[in-house]
Structures are given as C-alpha cells and as structure tokens.
Amino acid sequence: MRSVSARRAVVAAALAPLLALAAPFAAHADTGTSAAGAAEQAAVIKDGDSPYTDSCATGATTTQSADITVAGAKVGLIEIRHSATCHVAWARIQLTDAGEQYANEQTAVAIKRTGPDAIYSCTPTLDKSDSLNAYTCYTSVVLLDGGGSALASAVNPAFDASPDAEAGEVRTESFAE
Hints:
The protein is an alpha+beta fold.
C-alpha cells in the first residue's frame, strides 16, 4: 500500500497536463476575457488573406450579387461576400451545371477595393462544391475596416456584359462598409 504522500504525488502527476491546459483560461479569468476572446483580439486579418482565416467566413453574408448570363441564359452568379466581424469582403462565383464549360482559365473573378486600391482574383475549376452544388472559387479578402467599398466582377469572353462594363464582364453593384 502506498503512503499518502506517494498517492498525492501520483495524483499531482496525473493532473499536471490538465492544469497546464487550464492555465490560459485562468490567466484571463480576472479580466472577464476568455482565452478564445483574447485569441480573437490578437488575430489580425489583412488584405490578401483567405476568408477562412480567423473564421471570417463564418456568419458572412452576401451583400451584392449579379447573374452571369450567356446569350441571355443564366449560367451562374457573382457575389460580394462580407464579414462584419472581420471587416473584410471577397468575391465568390457560382457556376451552375449550365455554366460548367466556363469553369476554366478564361474566366477570372475579381474583388476590387477602392481607395486605397486592392485587387485579388481567382479562377473557378472543375472541382464542384458539394455544399453549393456549383463550380466555385473565392478571392482573397480586401480589408474594409474604417470604410471603403468593394466591387466584384467576373470576366469571360462569352459572358453578357453588365451595363457600363467591358465586353464579357459582369459586375455587381458596389458595396460600402
């Protein structure tokens, strides 16, 4: 039979890893800030990051969209996605089965922030998104913290142009935060 001090040593050794995991939570207990909250405050998203960085895509909304048409038939959608939590926007394209042939290197999707300018782009591939049931891609983010506006576009020679756009370019309305 082990002595009391030997049993205490065994229990202390078993609890040590758990106490180490709890230490970050205890460090923030007096300030009312959780460890998760402290991590969110420390995280900084910047132009060019993925919308999935720091969970910015979680809870994001579509603020503007425009149908993509070819010879008058809808083949997809171009969107501006926005995260109010992270103060960022990005563009996403969704090409339907009717638009599958445009999921190639001739199609460019872009998000443009005005003042100061930032532009990021992507090209949809034939990897169909199961959750959206579409051929998609999303751009990197543009930071809108402190104001700014964003405009999304999709370009392919076959696309019907939006008003005031170049041939083959579909634009969303601009979005300002």
